[in-house]
């Protein structure tokens, strides 16, 4: 083989090292997914370049994305006319087992509690159901992703999971030899018990088993290194809230309430969990605060609940717990959300220009301030 062809093969391999597997967040060359690059002259003075790609699993859902990036990497070489040929196969079981073992060796524990972790963790809580906590979680996660943050979300409401529906997810996580890949939708890496077969059956988990479900979502899933992790907690102050505090002591609590006293009084109890566990309450979000109708702002559920919660928590906890957002009551939150797209997003995944999106962007910015 001529030196020129060897140079081309080496250069293409180097360019492929900048192609990142979208699930594992690593270079496809580092992961051993490129088993060979062969350059062969063509009669028309061009060069056939055959790239041998070994996917981690057969029918990888993101294989088209990887192949498109490989094509782009070859096209970026301008010193010769290259004709790419991509041959796709799957890794052998031994090679895959070795890769998974290496990945697990790098992360022998909950990745969100290791020293130096950059991930900001926000647990979204409410004192009672029906205040729109999951909708707030979904739209906040989508907002973070649209703002450019690497975002992950865990549906920690084991009994009343709803994030898959709100994000339009119908797929199951990819099982990579016992390590799960989160499902990505609208730019957010998601994990929920609702993604698994039989999840529609009643789940009666308590105590240690419930805590183990959260530990598995944290330790047995390859999250990479997200900037933000949101947890949609079950309503109230039960086992899962305590499990989050024990498993993720660096999590910050965001309390969701509606304006009326019956909701705000109970919401305070969720925030007071922080008196018993090492979790800081970051702020309060008042949902369904008002409804604008023909130029008039209607307070359908009363007013002042969010401010009452913020003031009571500030007094009880001894530090400032601000009211961070007052979100409107909008039919499109339900209509768009139930279609599988968070209401803050356009069809292309960008933030809408609506007041709702502006509120969520402001909330996200406040949360990311130290």
From TrEMBL:
What this protein is called in its record is: Iron-sulfur cluster carrier protein
Look up keyword Iron and say if it applies.
yes
Q: Give the family per the record.
A: Belongs to the Mrp/NBP35 ATP-binding proteins family.
Chain's role: Binds and transfers iron-sulfur (Fe-S) clusters to target apoproteins. Can hydrolyze ATP.
Entry annotated with the keyword Cell membrane: no
- Assembly description: Homodimer.
Its keywords, alphabetically, are: ATP-binding, Hydrolase, Iron, Iron-sulfur, Metal-binding, Nucleotide-binding
Q: Where is the MIP18 family-like domain positioned along the sequence?
A: 9-76
Q: Name one GO molecular function term.
A: ATP binding
